[in-house]
Amino acid sequence: AMASALGFSPPAIFCIGLNYKQHAKESGMALPAYPVVFSKPPSSVIGHGDAIKIPSICHPEEVDYEVELAVIIGKAAKDVKEEEALDYVQGYTVANDVSARRWQLKQGGGQWVRGKSFDTFCPLGPRIVPAAEIPDPNNLELGCTLNGQVVQKSNTRDMIFSVKQIIAFLSQGTTLQPGTVILTGTPEGVGVARKPPLYLKPGDTISCHVEGIGELTNPVAAEATTKANL
After folding, report:
1. Which of 4, 76, 124, 199 is buried most deeply by CB count within 10 Å?
2. How confident is the model over 4-9, as a mean pLDDT?
3. How many whole angstroms separate alpha carbon 118 and alpha carbon 102?
4. Smallest Cα–Cα separation from 129: which of 85, 172, 175, 92?
């Protein structure tokens, strides 16, 4: 399942929640004073073209999409200053922070990790763009289409905490090992905030794109159930 653009299993995947002003607004949440940090396990990573598989423990009206700019750390970063933070970036790719909203918000004990950790819930791709090709990661158009319809459209300049602020913040007291992936948050337009809500279902095609990197496209399927029908 690790055949993503990375070509390796990342030592850690850190994610930032509520990091776009308009997304915080649509979620009905106050702008965070500090970055909201959670993680996804390396086992959730898939690549461009791989299927997002909805597990049987998820409700049919639950699984959501989130286009994100992903940062790949190139050298060990600890206690990094903001003005030096981008020196530690190897490159950038596109991520989809697939999220099971009931598990995230109602069945996660107040923590988000569980609803974002299922197998296939971290598509990354289609390629890694070297950091030198993206001098300013906070001025990139990004968006998402579901079955060809635009559902998210924004720019990374709407981030509350910039890429360099995020790297500096995460590195305080914590070594970001080479290969660590950081998902920097999603803009507005997620399915759970829509009226009526819009969720991923088997047969869908979801495409996330970030300017200068490309398009990450994944079909959606139901996970083949292996448990006995009790």
Report:
1. 124
2. 82
3. 13
4. 92
CB half-sphere exposure, 148, CA atoms < 13 A: 1
pLDDT in tens, 119-136: 999 999 999 999 999 999
- 3-class DSSP state for residue 195? coil
- Cβ atoms of 96 and 65 within 8 Å: the answer is yes
d(CA 127, CA 5): 5
Mean pLDDT over each residue of the chain, to the nearest integer: 92
pTM score above 0.85: yes
Contacts 24+ apart (CB under 8 A), 129-134: 129/91, 129/92, 129/93, 129/212, 129/213, 130/90, 130/91, 131/74, 131/86, 131/89, 131/90, 131/91, 131/92, 133/212, 134/92, 134/212, 134/213
DSSP string spanning 84-119?
GGGGGEEEEEEEE--EEHHHHHTSSTT-STGGG-ST
- Predicted local confidence at residue 24, as pLDDT: 82
Most distant CA pair in the chain: distance in Å?
Answer: 57
